[in-house]
Amino acid sequence: MEQKKIKYIALVIALTSQLSNAQQKDNIYKKGWIDFNKNGTMDVYENPKAPLEKRVQNLISQMNVDEKTCQMATLYGYKRVLKDSLPTPNWKNEIWKDGIANIDEQLNGVGLLASNGRNAVVSKNLIYPFSNHALAINKTQRWFIEETRLGIPVDFTNEGIHGLNHTKATPLPAPIGIGSTWNKDLVLKAGQIAGREAKALGYTNVYAPILDLSRDPRWGRVLETYGEDPFLVGALGTQMVKGIQSQGVASTLKHYAIYSMPKGGRDGNARTDPHINPRELHEIHLYPFKKVIQDAQPMGVMSSYNDWNGEPVTASHYFLTQLLRWEYGFKGYVVSDSEAVEFIYTKHQIAPTYQDGVRQVVEAGLNVRTHFTPPKDYILPLRNLVNEGKLSIKLIDERVAEVLRVKFRLGLFDTPYVENPKAADAIVGADKNKDFVLDIQKQSLVLLKNEGNLLPLDKTKIKKVLVTGPLAAEENYMVSRYGPQELKNTTVLDGIKEYLGKDVAVDYAKGCDAVDANFPESELINFPLAAKEQSDIDQAVLLAKQNDIIIVALGEDEKTTGESKSRTGLGLPGRQQQLLEALYATGKPVVLVLINGQPLTINWAQKFVPSILEAWFPSHLGGKAIAETLFGDYNPGGKLTVTFPKSMGQIELNFPYKLGSHNTQGNEGPNGFGKTSVNGALYPFGFGLSYTTFGYSDLTITPTKLNSQAEINVSVNVTNTGKRAGDEVVQLYISDKIASVVTYDSVLRGFERVTLQPGETKTIHFTLHPSDLMLLDKNMKWTVEPGDFEIKIGASSEDIKLKEVITIVP
């Protein structure tokens, strides 16, 4: 009896203790504020009405070194680094018992889930339904607020360049397709959707947009950029940031800086040594970052893992502090790209030890280290550096304060939880934004060729269609590591079948694989066709002869372009060219649909194939958008944001370009002449056709003579001179006629996408600011020099319709 009584008393004590702890945790939630440090008093940092800076400094003053260093590292989410889908008692033994800066990709559906066992089921349920994810994030956030000494909330980060990186969220086309819309309002809306879904799911920081420029088409990540031009990328990037942050979450820019120009376009294990001079660095590659930071005030920047001029960016005080904070005015926090810190020691080899590399990046201006290894790998060296007197605690305070400011600005110290988790089910998901997903997909399509007006096809005059090519029934290019997963994808074949229904018979033959067995060596050596390859082409040709029209989907898939997948050729991979030529030889009309992530040297197709539609990497409704465009329900109006070269030997060939750098060979003169190279672009920057035609008139510029700080108003009339409604992208370029340094032939300084009915005229207005005329002078100072400037309006960088000269007076 006595023993039972003792056990009973012990049980009562334990239950009472648990109840007391639960009550104590609940007691921290006061009316209008949260007692994060659980001392029963409203400290300054807990006071929602206190000034931001006072809250930050008050919190810093209460933090010890362990807590400060924990605010300088990322914890990658479940199944990447974090082994638990939800908090466990063992978290008290982990380094994040003292807090953490952010948790990345927590339960977003990307990465390897356990294939069996209870955890796999639990984690899947915490990803979808969406409300369960919001509840899971709240539970994780609650642990950090209630179980750590100071209760500092976590910033939950996630990727977002193809739409929010969460299972079944709203997808976007690849960024190169988004860029091809040239539609600022559409990109703003895309950002709003991504931000709204992030907020509803519990993410507080979205890693988007990418502001890198695609100046070298060999580079594998061309598909993840908006294009090659700094003004265009800056304008669209500004809209994306504004859209995301309008929903109360942070936008983090990628990848700062000069990330997209590794030597020779080599990605993978190279990713370094960009050959870029200082003037090009500032006028081209840093232009979008400066523009977006100053116009949209993003709260985050991701530092890249490449070097410039021998200095790794992530260890560069010049890049992370002088330029980013002092000159551009950035007021957020800098997170490293994965392994950027480690590369200081392992790849760039400018640090004698890894720990010294850690010292260098902190002194340079890095706030938070991110990598696919435990956060202690960075936090413990930080603490050693402080304890050894090699890293100033005052500098640590600065770096931590920059992180905390963002957390305060996001409202994490006032409303740290998703307030209505159930609402996520009604807010998030591709099915909630079907019209938008289809619209942005259509607007990204670019018509490259339409000889004899073969397009749009008239389904009433067609009895049988052959859909062929390795990309016709493929869908892997629709799913990105950086975007939503597990959506029902509509392939090109699916889209055409669904569109035509029972009215037109549709045949299908793959024709060939995306690559052959010898790829990529087959880009160097012409291997004979294998028997199976010849048989597949023959089957497609046999069917083609029995059909009225051939629609062939060629290009690249997810395995042939993308991150770490730079190419050594830009032709159609594998046996695709042989298939295309064999189909054309049947004499049947051929429509080529390009699925690709970078410019391709499709010279043969441009010369012989009647119609070519560029679709880039579409998202899950890509096949529907393509079908509706091919058959005339939609009139394509997208424009290229990258130059298509005719040959790899022309690279670099991009816009903007320095005066004379794209000139052809001379035909006469004292220095002789040559006929040894193919010149000019296959398709220039800004190019794109339509099923209708447009006329330009009445260019008006006021004033035409002005001082350097005045604004310039430009207007032009654009008329749909055809018989179909359509979109035109009106583009404004400027040429500096005489300057103190060699300038670009012309630069883009305005664009507007406009929809016009047949016969309709609209007046397009632009306002040019002094910054639009600036250049870096001989002393590398930004200035507007006096002299003549030519204002040009056109349908592409080479198709200029109207122009007029203005003069900046001394």
TrEMBL record:
<dbReference type="InterPro" id="IPR026891">
    <property type="entry name" value="Fn3-like"/>
</dbReference>
<dbReference type="InterPro" id="IPR036881">
    <property type="entry name" value="Glyco_hydro_3_C_sf"/>
</dbReference>
<dbReference type="InterPro" id="IPR013783">
    <property type="entry name" value="Ig-like_fold"/>
</dbReference>
<dbReference type="GO" id="GO:0045493">
    <property type="term" value="P:xylan catabolic process"/>
</dbReference>
<feature type="domain" description="Fibronectin type III-like">
    <location>
        <begin position="728"/>
        <end position="797"/>
    </location>
</feature>
<dbReference type="Pfam" id="PF01915">
    <property type="entry name" value="Glyco_hydro_3_C"/>
</dbReference>
<keyword id="KW-0732">Signal</keyword>
<dbReference type="GO" id="GO:0031222">
    <property type="term" value="P:arabinan catabolic process"/>
</dbReference>
<keyword id="KW-0378">Hydrolase</keyword>
<dbReference type="InterPro" id="IPR044993">
    <property type="entry name" value="BXL"/>
</dbReference>
<dbReference type="GO" id="GO:0008422">
    <property type="term" value="F:beta-glucosidase activity"/>
</dbReference>
<dbReference type="GO" id="GO:0046556">
    <property type="term" value="F:alpha-L-arabinofuranosidase activity"/>
</dbReference>
<dbReference type="Pfam" id="PF00933">
    <property type="entry name" value="Glyco_hydro_3"/>
</dbReference>
<dbReference type="InterPro" id="IPR002772">
    <property type="entry name" value="Glyco_hydro_3_C"/>
</dbReference>
<dbReference type="Pfam" id="PF14310">
    <property type="entry name" value="Fn3-like"/>
</dbReference>
<protein>
    <submittedName>
        <fullName>Beta-glucosidase</fullName>
    </submittedName>
</protein>
<comment type="similarity">
    <text>Belongs to the glycosyl hydrolase 3 family.</text>
</comment>
<dbReference type="GO" id="GO:0009044">
    <property type="term" value="F:xylan 1,4-beta-xylosidase activity"/>
</dbReference>
<dbReference type="InterPro" id="IPR017853">
    <property type="entry name" value="GH"/>
</dbReference>
<dbReference type="InterPro" id="IPR001764">
    <property type="entry name" value="Glyco_hydro_3_N"/>
</dbReference>
<dbReference type="InterPro" id="IPR036962">
    <property type="entry name" value="Glyco_hydro_3_N_sf"/>
</dbReference>
